[in-house]
């Protein structure tokens, strides 16, 4: 079973009397340990897809299965718990809380999963270590550069050891050099076994991922799969770095 | 669905500690705004505490006054006009007499003491001054105990004085003040025991003087003045005697004390012999009056009232019934008497205090309500400022409940801080009120009032936080994240 299974997912918004199909009958599998990018121009529906994958939203029709949990039936409370334990988000604008320092920002997800104070601190420092930001633990986000802020955001996304990481235009607000560094950080994380979904409008950035899915008008327009499994076009899933437990 | 691993979905809520810290941080980040928000609560809480302190002070003063005139276990029998259906028997009515006293003493086991009073309105003169008092009366020595009097100088007249109808009397300090001057006027306390006083021209020897009665507040003021006077070397006069306040200008409680101080007691027999028997003993002297008795030369044995003490206050109705039965027989069924209990006054005091408390609570309640609206307003504004933060929190796994709780904690903390500050302010407010309008009764700040006021502020904080918290918790995380 794939980590994420989308089956005939549609999302329909009603704007006035008009019906907008943001997603139209999309089916998609994401395997454990994959590094996949979702490409598409703005308004293509890629954000909607990410929101549904990321349990921020539920589909109008179709089924979403994440790590064996059916998302489309989940309550708000359950979705929050799934976001907390199974999903990490990295955003274009970093989305750190300005009033908290770096350490407190990274501790935030653990506050909602009931981790005790000492453990929180330990794990937050470990996550900051992983993104090489430990020496800035006491700084405010406003005292950091964009790249540094994004590293902190990645640490926060990883701190609860999620099954899947979603990055929404993670380099969109960074210069190309810093963006490159962030992308290589993602690559490194993927090599360590993280499942990462990169959402971008930029084909160049998408090029770093072996598998790319292009969304246009709410449908999957094209798929590029450079993984071994994809190349073999076999039904056997690629062997992930860390096997499904 | 049934195969879903549900254990992951059991969501443990955010811990209280970090949420509280986040709330305090948020309040601290907007210090001035938070203070302004708290102002309503501060005013509400302090006015609630101050109001309750004022009422409590009044209550205490009133209770002291009540004790000064005798406790609740005292009943007064007074003459009254006949009921309409008995008007034609007017000339048969005997009034309250010594006969009644004997009957009650022998026949009413629920009555422990009977004290007859024969009131003689007099003009007292001595030391070249005169003083009219309606508190001059002939009584038995038992009246001392009955009316909660205490002799400070000299002695009370005894049964022998009464038996022999001696011309002796015991006076209160107000009478002394009127005739000889108060200690603060003359600079020393005059004790006129042994002096002669003319009551309606009849010479009496003063054999005793009561102690000075005053409310606790009056005493404190007086002691403070005396202390200040003692400290200042220029005012030597005040050292010689305690400062005393006659209490004319004071409230109901003060008036009760003044009345008590203006008392003149003489033996009952003396009062009857000298003023009621019809034998004119007053036919000499410059202030002679033909007769002070309404029935002229025939003598008037009627008493002005009886004071009764009841064995047990709980048996008040039964005791009254006993006395009524006895008096109905001695009065031949003519109801020319009535009972006065302190209950009526106590009831009046209670009503007054209840009203004061109610109106005070209303004002304090309204200001707390306004404070609550202020908090709600600020919380709503704060939420629209923090939409993005709420979105971020939700994206990392905060449930609606977590957000709801966070906002609620914030508004409650604001209200609680306001409550604390309000408690602090209330002391200042109480002080201010007692300086602006010095009353008889010092306000008493009670722990109960503070607790209630604080409890109310917490409730207001919770109520004010509900709507903003609900609004915040229902924010759509996607829209909240996009919010600029």
Mind telling me which CATH architecture of the domain at 34-45 and 81-232 in chain A this is? 3-Layer(aba) Sandwich
Strand neighbour order, sheet with most strands of chain A: 6-7-8-3-9-10
Low-pLDDT runs of 5+ residues of chain A are: 234-245
Uncertain residue segments of chain B: 1-6, 235-252, 280-297
What percent of residues of chain B adopt helix (DSSP H or I)? Answer: 40-55%
| Major β-sheet profile of chain A | 6 strands, mixed
Q: Could you name the CATH topology of the domain at 34-45 and 81-232 in chain A?
A: Rossmann fold
Shape of chain A: globular
Output the helix-strand order of chain A: EEEHEEHEHHHEHEHEEH
Architecture overview:
The complex is a heterodimer of chains A (245) and B (484). Chain A is built from eight helices and ten strands. In chain A, helix 4 crosses helix 5. Chain A has a domain at 34-45 and 81-232: 3-Layer(aba) Sandwich (Rossmann fold). The radius of gyration of chain A is 18 Å and the shape is globular. Chain A has helices spanning 46-53, 76-86, 102-111, 117-130, 146-158, 176-191, 203-206, 228-232; strands at residues 4-15, 18-30, 35-39, 61-66, 69-70, 87-90, 164-168, 195-200, 211-216, 219-225. The longest helix of chain A has 16 residues, at 176-191. By secondary structure, chain A is of the alpha/beta class. Chain B is 54% helix and 13% strand. Chain B is built from 17 helices and twelve strands. Chain B has helices spanning 16-29, 31-68, 98-107, 143-146, 159-163, 173-180, 183-186, 216-231, 237-240, 252-261, 268-276, 316-330, 342-385, 387-395, 400-436, 447-473, 477-482; strands at residues 74-79, 111-119, 122-126, 129-133, 136-139, 151-154, 168-171, 196-199, 202-210, 264-267, 305-310, 337-341. In chain B, helix 2 (31-68) packs parallel to helix 10 (252-261) and helix 2 (31-68) packs antiparallel against helix 13. Chain A binds chain B through residues 51, 54, 56-57, 68-70, 73-74, 76-78, 80-86, 89, 91, 95-97, 99, 108-109, 111-114, 117, 156, 160, and chain B through 1, 3-5, 8-15, 17-19, 25-26, 29, 388-389, 391-402, 477-478, 481.
């Amino acid at each position: 079973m794939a980590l994420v299974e989308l089956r005939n997912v549609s999302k329909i918004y009603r704007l006035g009397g008009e019906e907008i199909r943001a997603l139209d009958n999309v089916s998609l599998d994401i395997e454990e340990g994959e590094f996949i990018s979702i490409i598409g121009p703005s308004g293509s529906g890629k954000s909607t897809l990410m929101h549904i994958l990321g349990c921020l939203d539920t589909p109008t029709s179709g089924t979403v299965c994440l790590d064996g949990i059916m998302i489309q039936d989940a309550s708000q409370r359950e979705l929050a718990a799934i976001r907390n334990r199974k999903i990490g988000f990295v955003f274009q604008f970093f989305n750190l809380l300005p009033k908290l320092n770096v350490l407190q920002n990274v501790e935030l997800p653990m506050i909602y999963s009931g981790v005790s104070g000492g453990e929180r601190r330990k794990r937050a420092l470990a996550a900051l270590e992983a993104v090489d930001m430990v020496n800035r633990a006491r700084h405010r986000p406003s005292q950091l550069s964009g790249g540094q802020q994004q590293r902190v955001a990645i640490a926060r996304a990883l701190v609860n050891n999620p099954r899947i990481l979603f990055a929404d235009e993670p380099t969109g607000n960074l210069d190309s050099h810093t963006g490159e560094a962030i992308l290589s950080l993602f690559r490194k994380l993927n090599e360590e076994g993280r499942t990462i979904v990169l959402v971008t409008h930029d084909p160049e950035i998408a090029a770093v991922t072996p598998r790319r899915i292009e969304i246009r008008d709410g449908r999957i327009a094209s798929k590029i799969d450079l993984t071994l499994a994809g190349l073999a076009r076999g039904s056997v899933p690629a062997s992930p770095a860390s096997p499904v437990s | 669905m049934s195969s879903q691993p549900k254990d992951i979905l059991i969501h443990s809520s955010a811990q209280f500690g970090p949420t509280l810290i986040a709330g305090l941080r948020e309040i601290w980040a907007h210090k001035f705004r938070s203070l302004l928000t708290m102002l309503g609560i501060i005013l509400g809480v302090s006015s609630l505490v101050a109001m309750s302190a004022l009422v409590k002070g009044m209550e205490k003063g009133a209770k002291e006054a009540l004790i000064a005139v005798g406790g609740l276990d005292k009943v007064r029998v007074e003459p009254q006009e006949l009921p309409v259906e008995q008007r034609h028997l007017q000339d048969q009515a005997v009034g309250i007499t010594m006969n009644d006293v004997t009957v009650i003493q022998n026949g009413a086991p629920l009555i422990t003491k009977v004290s007859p009073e024969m009131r003689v309105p007099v003009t007292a003169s001595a030391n070249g001054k005169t003083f009219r008092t309606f508190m001059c009366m002939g009584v038995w020595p038992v009246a001392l105990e009955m009316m909660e009097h205490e002799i400070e100088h000299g002695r009370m007249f005894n049964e022998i004085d009464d038996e022999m109808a001696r011309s002796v009397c015991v006076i209160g300090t107000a009478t002394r003040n009127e005739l000889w001057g108060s200690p603060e006027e003359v600079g020393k306390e005059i004790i006129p025991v042994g002096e002669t006083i003319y009551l309606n021209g009849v010479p009496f020897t003063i054999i005793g003087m009561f102690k000075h009665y005053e409310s606790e507040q009056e005493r404190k003021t007086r002691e403070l003045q005396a202390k200040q006077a003692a400290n200042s070397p220029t005012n030597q006069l005040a050292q010689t005697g305690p400062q005393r306040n006659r209490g004319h200008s004071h409230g109901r409680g003060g008036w009760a004390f003044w009345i008590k101080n203006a008392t003149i007691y003489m033996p009952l027999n003396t009062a009857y012999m000298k003023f009621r028997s019809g034998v004119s003993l007053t036919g000499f002297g410059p202030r002679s009056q033909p007769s002070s008795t309404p029935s002229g030369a025939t003598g008037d044995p009627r008493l002005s009232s009886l004071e009764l003490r009841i064995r047990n206050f709980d048996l008040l109705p039964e005791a009254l019934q006993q006395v009524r039965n006895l008096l109905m027989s001695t009065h031949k069924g003519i109801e020319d008497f009535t009972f006065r209990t302190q209950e009526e006054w106590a009831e009046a005091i209670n009503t007054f205090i209840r009203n004061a408390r109610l109106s005070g609570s209303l004002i304090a309640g309204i200001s707390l309500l306004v404070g609550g609206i202020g908090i709600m307003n600020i919380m709503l504004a704060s939420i629209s400022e923090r939409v993005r933060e709420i979105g971020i929190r939700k994206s990392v796994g905060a449930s609606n409940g977590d957000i709801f709780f966070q906002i609620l904690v914030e508004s409650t903390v604001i209200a609680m801080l306001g409550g604390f500050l309000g408690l602090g302010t209330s002391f200042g407010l109480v002080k201010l009120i007692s300086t602006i309008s010095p009353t008889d009764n010092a306000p008493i700040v009670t722990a109960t009032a503070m607790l209630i006021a604080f409890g109310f502020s917490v409730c207001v904080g919770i109520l004010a936080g509900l709507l903003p918290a609900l609004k915040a918790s229902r924010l759509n995380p996607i829209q909240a994240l996009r919010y600029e």
